[in-house]
Write a structure and sequence with these properties.
The complex is a heterodimer of chains A (304) and B (414).
Chain A lengths: L25 H28 L3 H4 L14 H8 L11 H31 L5 H11 L4 H14 L6 H25 L3 H9 L4 H9 L4 H17 L2 H6 L7 H9 L8 H31 L6
Helix pairs in contact in A: 1-13, 3-13, 4-7, 4-10, 4-12, 5-7, 7-10, 10-13, 12-13
Chain B lengths: L1 H15 L9 E6 L4 H16 L3 E6 L6 H10 L6 E3 L3 H9 L7 H6 L8 H7 E2 L2 E2 L1 E8 L2 E5 H7 L9 H6 L1 H6 L3 E4 L4 H16 L1 H7 L12 H14 L11 H9 L3 E6 L3 H7 L8 E5 L6 E10 L5 H14 L2 H11 L15 H12 L2 E3 L1 H4 L2 H16 L5 H16 L1
Parallel strand pairs in B: 1-2, 1-3, 8-9, 11-12
Antiparallel strand pairs in B: 3-11, 4-5, 6-11, 7-9, 7-10
Helix pairs in contact in B: 2-16, 10-11, 10-12, 10-19, 12-20, 19-20
Classes of the chains: A mainly alpha (304), B alpha/beta (414).
């Protein structure tokens, strides 16, 4: 009897393919120029912000915004973190950092939890009026926040969470639900029917299937949604401004309090340092989880 | 296990974000002040309140983020502040219609406060015949702050100018010496804040109040006083240096502080920028009212009090009003904020020479109210836009501006 050996798949690397001769075309140059301009569009203001944040005010008021610092100082960063005022509380943007973290976690749990379960139900269970519900949800995604702001204020007031972190978190969850539900629903729709049939035959209930089968399969999509939501919640200003109460204003509002002034004196170096400090957390998330974000998208997260 | 962890995390989160409960005698204050000078001024009030056993809880929101929207949201959400910064009379009318207005007319009369406030302040804090606001600070919307070293180097004395023609007579001398005559910035805020003080100064109170009100008097558009104010706006803005476009008022003042320009015509909150650079009035900088002014445009910063509260809170609110308008507190508050005290009888020990210029001007010339206090908001913003367009487009004539005023009037009120 002859042993039948399994066929080894042929693995090729890019070295096995012949190199295409490089040819500089007009279109390539145009694309390069366009991309360079796009990069400069972001890079130049970023350069000004960084350089200003380490200059002394005596140099800044000379008005040469592109010049390098004659004397580098990190005092503006220290002041921004520890001393800038939001109202009479002069404890820096770190206060807002803590508030934003406290807002972020319940907001993430509420928005992702609700949307995930709703998307799962709509994609994999026979729900009456599911199509209509999806349509309404889809329509709601296009309603401007300003239109529903006052009703939301009244509703959060009625349930006694207006001005609290839970009030902010609930509003974030409500506003994120349409888009996130669509994302989860589209992702779960690609799960083969056989898996659901097998799970049902194994006497799986709605929640058991969700926790034991669906949730473990949701890694990619969760990373995508986490990045989207963390960025959106961290960078939010309006919800924090109008729904936050005493001691619950997020970092963006604390930043705006310290930076925006129509009649007060302005310290540009401290303002720039505070702005950079506020922008750092979402950037870190992108750097750490960016690879997974791309994987999630290509795995079907937010495609068609 | 997963479920237990989830419950644990959720419980911890709920406990960590539970709302903080305020004490019974804490005033819940809503305001838009976070700049260093503003905070130092508020601390004067907080210390004085603490001596009376009244605490301070606050929500601060950024400048220019529609504080009246935030205020109404707080009221709608069932969490209204006891004390709030607000200038718009419409908000006080809205609150009164909800049973939440709190007049202080009687309180001010009983405590001899009203009689010691300048007329412009009393006008500004009165809504439909009742005093509804507690005034904290006077700012003049259009003053000239000048660099004394530059003036000395060129050999000009701004205090000697008795008219705008006098002022411009020195323009060539200043420019020949290599300085910008008058510093200039570029945005709608600055164009608007240059124009309405000029209307008050050149055209006078009658034209000013016909132009800036809930519905302007359309005959004012053909008034020669208004035309003269527009012409002066052109004359001032046309001598700007090259970098004026998009320059903020603070950067504009910086060009005076650093000795590139002789002076800046803007609101007297410029003083904060001078003080932040370590300069003091009378030494590094001097100040004058617009030469030959017929009236000074006055901004009165003020707090409103919430009505419909229990007696204990009402007493705390009234105590706040008395503290704010106490002559000594008003002087110390103004010293910190860089404004002028609202009390005409405030001790002069805490004032600088610019405060004296303001108070003397209010006595001799008189003041008109800031447009935010009296004019339709759409109209006011249209005026800002038109004047900024006028500043930006040298081909636009005074007749064009007047025609644009008429067109905007038709759109808004027609």
């Amino acid at each position: 009897m002859t042993d039948i050996l399994p066929l080894e798949p042929v693995r090729r690397t890019f070295r096995d393919y012949p190199k295409k001769p490089r040819k500089i075309r007009g279109s390539s140059i145009a694309i390069l120029v366009f991309l360079t301009m796009c990069a400069l569009f972001i890079a130049i203001p970023l350069y000004v912000i960084i350089v200003t944040s380490i200059k002394e005010m005596s140099q800044i008021i000379q008005g040469e915004i592109f010049s390098l610092p004659t004397k580098v100082t990190f005092e503006p960063w220290w002041k921004a973190w520890n001393e800038v005022c939001s109202g009479v509380q002069c404890e820096g943007v770190k206060v807002g950092f803590i508030n934003s973290l406290m807002i972020l976690f319940p907001s993430l749990v509420l928005s992702i939890g609700l949307s995930m379960v709703t998307g799962y139900a709509l994609a994999l269970w026979n729900i009456r009026w599911a199509g209509t519900f999806l349509f309404v949800l889809f329509t709601a995604a296009f309603v401007p926040f300003q239109i529903i702001m006052i009703p939301l204020i009244i509703m959060t007031g009625i349930i006694k969470v207006y001005g609290t972190i839970w009030g902010v978190a609930i509003v974030h969850a409500v506003l994120a639900m349409p888009l996130l539900t669509l994302i989860f629903r589209n992702y779960y729709k690609d799960i083969p029917n056989e898996i659901m049939s097998a799970a049902l035959m194994d006497s799986g209930s709605f929640w058991r299937i969700f926790f034991e089968i669906i949730l473990p399969m949701s890694g990619n999509i969760l990373i995508v949604v986490l990045i989207l939501q963390i960025t959106s919640i961290w960078n939010d200003f309006i919800i924090g401004l109008y729904f936050g109460g005493i001691g619950t204003k997020p970092m963006t509002v604390i930043l705006a309090n310290s930076v925006i002034t129509s009649r007060g004196e302005i310290s540009y170096n401290v303002d720039m340092a505070a702005a950079l400090l506020t922008a750092i957390p979402p950037l870190v998330i992108y750097f750490v989880l960016g690879k997974f974000f791309v994987q999630g998208i290509t795995a079907g997260a937010i495609k068609g | 296990m997963f479920h237990k962890s989830l419950v644990g995390v959720t419980t911890a989160l709920m406990l960590s974000v539970a709302p903080v409960t305020a004490n019974a005698l804490d005033l819940f204050v809503y305001h838009t002040w976070s700049a260093e000078s503003e905070v130092n001024a508020l601390k004067v009030l907080i210390d004085a309140l603490a001596e009376k056993g009244i605490g301070w809880k606050e929500i601060a929101i950024p400048h220019e983020s529609e504080s009246n929207v935030g205020l109404i949201n707080l009221v709608t959400g069932g969490n209204p502040p006891d004390v709030f910064i607000e200038s718009s009379p419409g908000v006080y009318r809205d609150l009164a219609s909800m049973g939440l207005g709190q007049p202080v007319t009687q309180l001010f009369a009983d405590n001899h406060i009203t009689e010691n406030l300048p007329d412009a302040v009393v006008q500004s804090i009165t809504v439909d015949g009742e005093i509804m606001k507690v005034p904290t600070a006077i700012h003049i919307d259009g003053m000239i702050y000048y660099n004394k070293a530059v003036a000395a180097a060129v050999g000009v004395d701004p205090t000697s100018w008795t008219s705008l023609d006098d002022m411009f007579a020195d323009e060539q001398k200043v420019e020949d010496a290599g300085y910008t005559f008058m510093a200039m910035g570029g945005n709608t805020f600055q164009a608007g804040y240059l124009f309405h003080p000029l209307v008050a100064a050149i055209a006078g109170p009658d034209v000013y109040y016909r132009f800036y009100q809930e519905q302007p008097d359309p005959t004012v558009f053909d008034d020669p006083g208004l035309r003269a104010a527009i012409e002066m706006h052109r004359r001032i803005t046309s001598q700007a240096d090259e970098g004026w476009v998009n320059r903020s008022w603070a950067d504009t003042t910086n060009t005076v502080i650093t000795g590139k320009a002789l002076m800046h015509l803007h609101g007297d909150w410029m003083k904060g920028q001078w003080r932040a650079s370590g300069a003091t009035a009378g030494n590094e900088f001097g100040c004058i009212n617009i030469p030959g002014s017929k009236a000074m445009s006055v901004t009165v910063d003020a707090f409103g009090l919430l009505g419909g509260v229990d007696d204990e809170m009402k007493n705390a609110e009234f105590e706040f009003a008395k503290i704010v308008t106490d002559p000594l507190i008003a002087a110390r508050f103004a010293q910190q904020k860089g404004s002028t005290p609202v009390r005409a009888d405030a001790p002069t020990d805490y004032m600088d020479e610019c405060n004296t210029v303001v108070l003397d001007g209010l006595k001799s010339i008189g003041g008109v109210q800031n447009p935010f206090n009296i004019a339709d908001n759409d109209w006011h913003m249209s005026v800002w836009n038109i004047m900024f367009e006028f500043q930006s487009d040298p081909s636009m004539t005074v007749d064009d501006v007047i025609q644009r005023f008429k067109d905007e009037y038709d759109v808004i009120f027609g």
